[in-house]
Amino acid sequence: MWKYLIEKEFKQFFRDPGLPRMALAFPVLMMLVFPFAVSMEIRNIDLAVVDNDTGRESSLLVEQCTSSGYFRLVTLCHDPDEAQRLMDENRADAILTILPGFDEEVSTGTGLPAGIKVNTVNGTKGSIGAQYISECVRMYLAGKNVNVPSDDTPRMEISEKYYFNPYMDYKLFMIPALIVIAVTMITAFLPALNIVSEKEAGTIEQMNVTPVSKTAFITCKMIPYWAVAFFILTACLAIAWAVFGYTCRGSIMLLYLFTVLDIIVMAGLGLLISNYSSNAQQAMFVIWFFAVIFMLMSGIFTPVASMPDWAQAITYLNPMRYYADAMRAVFLKGSNLRDIWYDAAGLAALGAVMVSWAIMSYRKSD
Amino acid sequence: MDTELNAIEIRNLTKRFGNFTAVDNISFNVRNGEIFGFLGANGAGKTTAMRILCGLSRPSEGEGTVAGYDIRNEQEKIKRNIGYMSQKFSLYPDLTVGENIRLFGGIYGLNDRQIREKTEEMLSMLDLRQERDKYAGSLPLGWKQKLSFCIALIHDPRIIFLDEPTGGVDPETRRRFWELIYDTAEKGTTIFVTTHYMDEAEYCDRVSVMVDGKIAALDSPENLKTRFSARNMDEVFRIIAGRAEREERP
Predict the structure, then answer these.
(1) Is pTM beyond 0.95 here?
(2) Chain B residues 73-112 with a CB less than 8 Å from chain A
(3) What are the φ and ψ backbone dihedral angles of B50, each rounded to 5 degrees?
(4) CATH code 3.40.1710.10 region(s) in chain A
(5) pLDDT tens-digit series, residues A58-110
(6) Cβ contacts (< 8 Å) between A221 and chain B: which residues?
(7) Pairwise CA distance, residues B35 & A187, whole Å
(8) Do B217 and B240 form a contact (C-beta atoms < 8 A)?
(9) Residue range A45-144, CATH number
(10) Cα–Cα distance measured from residue B97 to residue B148, given in angstroms and rounded to the nearest whole number
């Protein structure tokens, strides 16, 4: 019986005008487009410089800033009001003001007559922009051998070393997370829509009068999507390696293991949605609701640890949180199962709840 | 209860949805091998009753057997012994004629060889050999219905339930469809059929008329016509169903 049902699902999958193409396009899009598009690196900060000194030193400082690659010089003017107007019009993200006597004070080392003003409508861009400018100023001063601020306090050397992603490459950071998003979407939501569309078409009724068991029917429905999920995982890993040269530091088997766990949770969720929806519109809306919450509260884009406590509590119910955390740990850090057992436990617990709830709420008869 | 004689036995069957009683304490038997017409206006409770008999719905009260199995707790056994054709085309439109036959054959436990034989037999009976590799969704309505009927019979069930099998097709196709039904009944299969067409009611061995969730009349078409001194089943139906109080439910 299983053989015939699986055969049916695969035939229907490959005959669908969109699904096979989507399964192919998804990993390519995820790996080749999104790592660039979702980058949180701040570049192209529009900088207005108000240079009240116009000495040699001040133009060196400006050059230091523009040559860093993070800034685009919008204007170099002498009027603070003009710079402010540019910021008001949203044409400048930051203003660097150099006060008169900059040349002198730099050489004597008495103070730092420069001011930084940033537009923080976009908070991240603003604060990172401010850091970049201070960093440029600091490096400029370091080059001048000027001590800032004064030398009364003992000096502290801070050496920074970045582990696991030494170049702080945002693309590398995002790749495991993008795999998480792709796998989750394919395994939870497509089968849910598929079941609801059988409800709408009335074909599920024909199935319900046959002796086919509900477990067999549903499992066979999921299998093609599981195959697609593994295909996507494999394709993404291959593209990440071929295009960016990124390889998984941990065991690839562990990536697959966590993918299996995630699939179980998501299959349960997808089934639940289809049980409680009577048409595709309802299902779409519920799916959209969960997809947004899962992604925003997963730690994929913003760290969970910086969320308020109540929001952190909610993330414990989010399967994507565990899956994304585990995939990043394995891919970037080479963690083994002992390091991230809690992610596995979280997924397993959620999976058990989802699947039993789904099976209890699915009925062949009313 | 004598299951040798009766394919379906229903006693005091009731189905409620909240405050609404869709099926109100009905009792009837269907004999083995007969063509049993199940009539009633829209909303009279036909479909609800039929869904219970097919194991798709559980009764609120009452008891009964279908093909000798209890309607309350042997639903899966019932499903093995009945065929069901819904009023809406519910085969897979994106599978071909042959693939639909293969799928349902496989679900009912036929092996590949049996499926091949059945497919040949059915395609030649329906004269669909040319259309074997066409998508089921692309067939004309009349052929879709004949295909659904045959697929409902693929496992040689004891009883077949037909829910308005001839809705929306031309008279010629309807006539040929009824020939199929007769052929099947002759082989000993019990036919349980709902219909809107009163001329089709005349083809049945016995008919029941449901009004407001109850069975208002049950007899052979001949006896009903005599009892209500009507010329045809259409008049009989109008006299009985004319007493309905319940509003038509969507």
Answers:
(1) no
(2) 75-76, 79-80, 82, 84, 86, 88-95, 99, 102-109
(3) -65, -35
(4) 45-144
(5) 788 888 788 877 788 888 888 888 888 888 888 888 888 887 877 777 666 66
(6) none
(7) 47
(8) yes
(9) 3.40.1710.10
(10) 10
